[in-house]
């Protein structure tokens, strides 16, 4: 009898210990969950590009980004749940926008509200009424997507507490960029111009988007007319009439064409015009035609763009 009684005591003791372990694990899991909840509730004071101080989540988990540089946020693993996906074109976006809700352009307020974001990044902040409406849904940070990539990526790092990651991205790209320019071996003072054909309108780009890449310190020089009439005026781009083409054209011409029939037809007309044939770059065969999707300095595109440029120029 005593032997059986002893076994029962050992059995109940084992069960008791098991229950204690399970309880400890459960409490540990609850604690971890509580920590995550507490982390998600933390806020910081952030000074926007307009000088306004607002309270934003320290670790946002449901971000709606309204703008054309979604690739920056995806590359830096920002948890974007909504975007106006009309801008997310190009093969560098393939397979990377799944799960992101298209909120329309510039963004349907009801759709955005239904997503229950904890932070909104708004490129279209010039509309005061709209910005106020967005701020009632979630803390809203005005954002300038036209900034050169160094400043833009640094700003994203500051908003999301990813300063070190932002610095690493910039360093990585600059190293790759230096390697590309070393291979291209440009002559000192060689100039280049970026023309952009959108529908029937022809634009000249300044030092933004593709211009931010080709006008790097070790890259092409900026034609005087581009510097004077666009960059010095604080513009991103400007329309140009056909008769002014010789004034803006550099030693190399990058012609970017929107992928639709109207843009292609108009570009063909310009490229076959007598005036175009008189340009120095055309005579030298220094004209590179590509899709307007490459008019970018977004993080997702940069790696591929650095490989594309030498191929356009047919250099190793």
Automatic annotation (TrEMBL):
<protein>
    <submittedName>
        <fullName>Iron complex transport system substrate-binding protein</fullName>
    </submittedName>
</protein>
<keyword id="KW-0732">Signal</keyword>
<comment type="similarity">
    <text>Belongs to the bacterial solute-binding protein 8 family.</text>
</comment>
<keyword id="KW-0813">Transport</keyword>
<dbReference type="InterPro" id="IPR002491">
    <property type="entry name" value="ABC_transptr_periplasmic_BD"/>
</dbReference>
<dbReference type="Pfam" id="PF01497">
    <property type="entry name" value="Peripla_BP_2"/>
</dbReference>
<dbReference type="InterPro" id="IPR051313">
    <property type="entry name" value="Bact_iron-sidero_bind"/>
</dbReference>
<feature type="domain" description="Fe/B12 periplasmic-binding">
    <location>
        <begin position="61"/>
        <end position="316"/>
    </location>
</feature>
<feature type="signal peptide">
    <location>
        <begin position="1"/>
        <end position="32"/>
    </location>
</feature>
């Amino acid at each position: 009898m005593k032997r059986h009684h002893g076994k029962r005591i050992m059995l109940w003791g084992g069960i008791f210990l098991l229950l204690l372990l399970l309880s400890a694990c459960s409490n540990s899991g609850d604690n971890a969950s509580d920590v995550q909840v507490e982390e998600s509730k933390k806020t910081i004071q952030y000074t926007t590009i307009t000088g306004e101080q607002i309270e934003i989540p320290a670790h946002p988990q449901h971000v709606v980004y309204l703008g054309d540089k979604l690739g920056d946020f995806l590359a830096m693993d920002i948890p974007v749940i909504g975007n106006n996906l009309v801008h997310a074109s190009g093969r560098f976006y393939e397979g990377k926008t799944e799960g992101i809700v298209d909120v329309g352009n510039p963004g349907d307020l009801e759709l955005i509200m239904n997503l229950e974001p904890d932070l909104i990044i708004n490129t279209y902040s010039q509309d005061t009424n709209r910005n106020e409406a967005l701020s009632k849904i979630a803390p809203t940070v005005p954002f300038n997507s036209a900034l050169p990539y160094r400043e833009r990526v640094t700003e994203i790092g500051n908003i999301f507490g990813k300063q070190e990651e932002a610095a690493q991205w910039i360093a990585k790209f600059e190293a790759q960029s230096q390697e590309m320019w070393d291979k291209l071996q440009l002559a000192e003072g060689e100039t280049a111009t970026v023309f952009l054909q959108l529908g029937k309108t022809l634009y000249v780009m300044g030092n933004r988007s593709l211009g931010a890449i080709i006008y790097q310190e070790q890259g092409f020089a900026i034609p005087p007319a581009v510097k004077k009439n666009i960059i010095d005026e604080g513009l991103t781009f400007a329309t140009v009439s056909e008769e002014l083409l010789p004034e803006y054209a550099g030693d190399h011409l990058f012609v970017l064409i929107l992928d639709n029939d109207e843009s292609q037809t108009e570009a063909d007309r310009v490229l076959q015009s007598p005036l175009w044939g008189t340009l120095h770059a055309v005579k030298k065969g220094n004209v590179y035609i590509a899709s307007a999707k490459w008019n970018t300095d977004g993080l997702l595109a940069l790696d591929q763009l650095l490989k594309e440029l030498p191929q356009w120029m047919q250099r190793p």
